[in-house]
Structure formats: structure tokens, C-alpha cells
Write a structure and sequence with these properties.
The complex is a heterodimer of chains A (about 170) and B (about 200). By secondary structure, chain A is an all-alpha fold. Chain A has helices spanning about 5-10, 25-40, 45-60, 60-80, 85-95, 135-140, 145-155, 160-165, 170. The longest helix of chain A has 20 residues, at about 60-80. Chain B is globular. The chains are: A mainly alpha (about 170), B mainly alpha (about 200).
């Protein structure tokens, strides 16, 4: 028998080293007591940290674990270090005319818009097109108002208007 | 044999599922089932009974607290064994930083059984030495190994675990496991030369 085999035999002897009789039954009781004590004392933060640690311990290759940590740190850094949009600068550049009022943006508040009625349902008319206001007298028979749009506004008000001529000059 | 292992795993899966649903008795069954093997692992790595007791409690406590995150990709035993290896290695690193272990701390009073007596009685170099003396020397020699070497010796030589399983649990290649075993055996042969003819 060579030395390596003898050594293995010696080491195998250690398999027979066991704790005293009844140790494991007693261990279970001690474990229950330990559980109660831990639940009472351990903080939520330490529990959370332990969960992360245990999850990482499943990944035994340190390269994988550290790559995941580095990727997470990178994403968090990007989120915090990315420059926030400068709203003041935007308002200086964008200049919206009344006809373009449908464009969103803070500069709209700075542009004086004419008083209009609240938009009708399904209203697709740009806010700047004041001729589409429900006040018929003000709309007049302006030729630069698209007839189709006028019909849309009036449809929502009264179905009767659909049967009547669309322009005030014709009703007169 | 394979069927028995499969049945064992299925049984574990049922117990784990019940424990995940809040059945503590199922978890107790798992504790009773695996504590002897885990005790052996931790004890042979620490050579200290009280430390083994504390670490074993912590292993099962941690397993219980993290049971919901256990998805069953590996067997419960592999999972809890990995927790035990990690906790013990961390403990040993802390212990080494704190102080070098005194040889007086090493346990040499573990009860031996009949088979142990028979084996030691038939071994010529051992016959002349007391059993306690042999145990003490074995534990001392193991404690002189590095943690990595001691871990593979414990898992392979003492617990009889195959190289592939050790490789999976430790997250190193089988070649690394064999290499560590080779160097650990060389060192142990030198440390225990009195017992080897």
C-alpha cells in the first residue's frame, strides 16, 4: 500500500467521528430557539442584505457575480449622472405661433392665445383657429375657414344645423 | 441507486414546497435529514464542536429565511450544502484574521464508534498510538492546510463526494479540484509521516 492510499485510509477514519447520542434531536430544539431569537433581533436591512448575499452565493463564479454588480452600478450611475433637461433653455428657443398651439411645451404659456370655448368632443381643430369658436356671429362667412371643419363644430352642437346651410350669408 | 437518488430528490422537493407554503414541520424534517452530513462538513473544516454547532444553526436559519428564493434548479441538499461551505469559509477567514487558532481549541474528544476502533486496531502504525492522539494529530494536520485545500479534502476524502459535485459546489473546474487534492495530500503526507510507512 503506497503512502497516498495509507493517507486516504487515515482520513477515512474521520468519518467515524460523530457527536454524542441524541445530539441532532437536541439540535432541532436549539434551532427553534435560535430562530425565535433571530426573528426578534434581526433588522429588515440585514435580512435584505443576507438575501442578496445568498442569491450571489448560488453564483459560485466570482467573475459572473462581479459583472452583475458592475452592470448594476453602471446603470445606477447613468441614471443619476445623466443631465436633466433644461426647461428654461427650451422656452427661449421654441416660439409657437397661435396656429401651432397644439404643440406641447412650456413656452405655450408665454404666447398669448385668444379666448376660446372649451374644446368640443372629437374636436380636431387647432387651438389657434379661433374662427371655429361656437359663437356663430363672430365666425361670419369667412372664406378662409375650411367648410369641413365648420361642419364638424356645428355637428356636435345641433343636428338641425346639418340640414341648414352652413354659411350665415345663405341662411340670411 | 439512481432511482433511490431520484426518489430522494422528489421527496425533498415535496418537503421544500410544503415548507415554502409555511409548513415548519416539513422544514424540520429536512433539518433532521441533513444535519448529520452538514455537521460532518463543518466539523472537519473547523475542528471545533461549539463553532460547528453555531454554524450549523446559522446554515439552517439562513436556508429557512431564503427558502422562498429557492427555485429548485439544484437539489435542496446541494443548495444548503453550498450555504454551509460559504458560511464556514467566511467564518474561517474571520477566525484567522482574529487570531491563529490555538491547538488547545481543537476538539479531540469526539466519541468514536466500534468500526473506528476496529479500523484503528488493524492498522499497524496506529496500534502503538492512542486513539485520542491520532485524532488530535489528524485534526492538527487538517488545520494546517489552507481553507481551500481543507475544504476539498473534507469533501472528497472524508465525505466521499465525487469530483464533479465538489467542482459544482465550489464553482471551480474539476482540474482545480484534483490539483488542490494533490497538493493537500502531499502536505498531509509530510505532516502525518509518523503514521505512514
Amino acid at each position: 500500500m503506497n503512502k497516498d492510499e495509507q493517507l486516504r485510509r487515515l482520513l477515512r477514519l474521520k468519518r467515524h467521528e460523530k457527536p454524542e447520542e441524541g445530539y441532532f434531536e437536541q439540535f432541532l430544539e436549539d434551532f427553534h430557539a435560535h430562530q425565535l431569537k433571530t426573528l426578534a433581533t434581526q433588522s429588515a436591512a440585514s435580512l435584505w442584505f443576507e438575501r442578496v448575499q445568498t442569491a450571489f452565493s448560488a453564483i459560485r463564479r466570482p467573475v459572473v457575480a462581479w459583472s452583475a454588480v458592475a452592470a448594476y452600478a453602471g446603470v445606477m450611475l447613468l441614471i443619476h449622472a445623466w443631465p436633466a433637461p433644461d426647461h428654461a433653455a427650451n422656452s427661449m428657443i421654441i416660439n409657437v405661433s397661435p396656429g401651432m398651439a397644439s404643440s406641447p411645451g412650456p413656452s405655450l404659456k408665454e404666447t398669448p392665445l385668444p379666448q376660446v370655448q372649451p374644446p368640443m368632443p372629437h374636436n380636431t381643430i387647432p387651438a389657434g383657429s379661433t374662427v371655429l369658436a361656437t359663437d356663430k356671429s363672430s365666425s361670419g362667412g369667412s372664406s378662409d375657414t375650411p367648410p369641413g371643419r365648420r361642419r364638424t363644430t356645428e355637428q356636435t352642437q345641433d343636428n338641425k344645423d346639418l340640414k341648414t346651410p352652413l354659411t350665415p350669408s345663405r341662411t340670411d | 441507486m439512481a432511482d433511490a437518488a431520484l426518489t430522494d430528490k422528489q421527496e425533498d422537493r415535496v418537503l421544500v414546497e410544503r415548507a415554502q407554503e409555511g409548513d415548519c414541520a416539513s422544514f424540520d424534517t429536512l433539518v433532521l435529514k441533513y444535519s448529520p452530513r452538514l455537521y460532518s462538513l463543518i466539523y472537519h473544516m473547523t475542528s471545533h464542536r461549539e463553532d460547528t454547532h453555531d454554524l450549523l444553526q446559522e446554515v439552517f436559519a439562513r436556508a429557512f429565511r431564503n427558502l422562498r428564493s429557492f427555485r429548485g434548479q439544484s437539489g435542496f441538499y446541494t443548495w444548503v450544502y453550498t450555504i454551509a461551505v460559504n458560511l464556514t469559509l467566511n467564518f474561517l477567514k474571520r477566525r484567522n484574521r482574529r487570531h491563529n487558532i490555538s491547538l488547545d481549541d481543537i476538539d479531540n474528544g469526539i466519541q468514536t464508534d466500534g468500526e473506528f476502533l476496529e479500523l484503528t486496531a488493524t492498522s499497524d502504525p496506529v496500534r502503538e498510538t492512542g486513539l485520542r492522539e491520532l485524532q488530535r494529530h489528524l485534526n492538527e494536520a487538517l488545520q494546517k492546510l489552507s481553507e481551500d485545500h481543507r475544504t476539498v479534502v473534507t469533501m472528497f476524502d472524508i465525505q466521499g463526494m465525487p469530483h464533479a459535485d465538489i467542482s459544482r459546489i465550489l464553482g471551480v473546474s474539476e482540474g482545480t479540484v484534483r490539483s488542490r487534492l494533490h497538493y493537500a495530500h502531499k502536505q498531509l503526507q509530510s505532516l502525518l509521516s509518523d503514521y505512514l510507512s
